[in-house]
Amino acid sequence: MSLAMRFWSLVVNALCIPMHIIKALGLYEGYKRVFPICLQRISINYNKKMHDKKAELFRSLSEFTKPGKKLTLLEIGCGTGANFEFYPPGCKVICTDPNPHFKKYLDKSMKQNDHLTYDQFVVASGEDMASVEDESVDVVVCTLVLCTVEDVPQTLREVHRILRPGGAFFFMEHVVADPSTWAYFFQHVLQPAWYYFGDGCEATRETWKYLEEAGFSELKLRRIQAQLMFMINPHIIGYAVK
């Protein structure tokens, strides 16, 4: 299967040559204006199918609130604010995303979720959140984002830096499928095209390995099948404590 996989991956990569050229010329940045529209529609469908899983995961958020204080939460790659409905009432939310064009969709989500307090929207990548102080948040949330960051270990180092001692990193991420499956085959074959459709998304990442090596004191991680399209069906879900 590996020979066939490599061959068809090269074929798809060749078909993507026009996209490679567009990106090299800096023209791909125009897609970032369109991507929030696409993601808003995708997020609605994703939340419908993953509602119970998200509700189960985020039910534990309040456990990391300091006594007598409100929970302070930072979300990496907040996108359109699809997670806001799952956050506990009174929670203070700091939103970060490298794409500034999400701002108007965030404003809409904020109005629809007035049980939250919004601190700020920071245009920043997960690898560099320098404007956020050390040990300043109780929880960091990241859903469907570690597939797109350029440097996963650096992103997790930033998570460590901004989390207070005893704080937690909550995640829900699609990952590469089992090598014995056809999903694994097609994830690798279609990856060159998927990268452009998903604004840098890599469906072939073994994200759990990065989490295991990130130096958290506790890691609660489980695998699920999300019942979505095969490219993003395998998921890991859980949280890690600093």
Automatic annotation (TrEMBL):
Coiled coil: none annotated. Keywords: Signal. Residues 1-26 form the signal peptide. Residues 74-171 form the Methyltransferase type domain. It holds the Pfam family Methyltransf_11. GO terms for molecular function: S-adenosylmethionine-dependent methyltransferase activity. PANTHER family: METHYLTRANSFERASE LIKE 7A (PTHR45036:SF1), METHYLTRANSFERASE LIKE 7B (PTHR45036). This is Thiol methyltransferase 1A. It comes from Poecilia reticulata (Guppy).
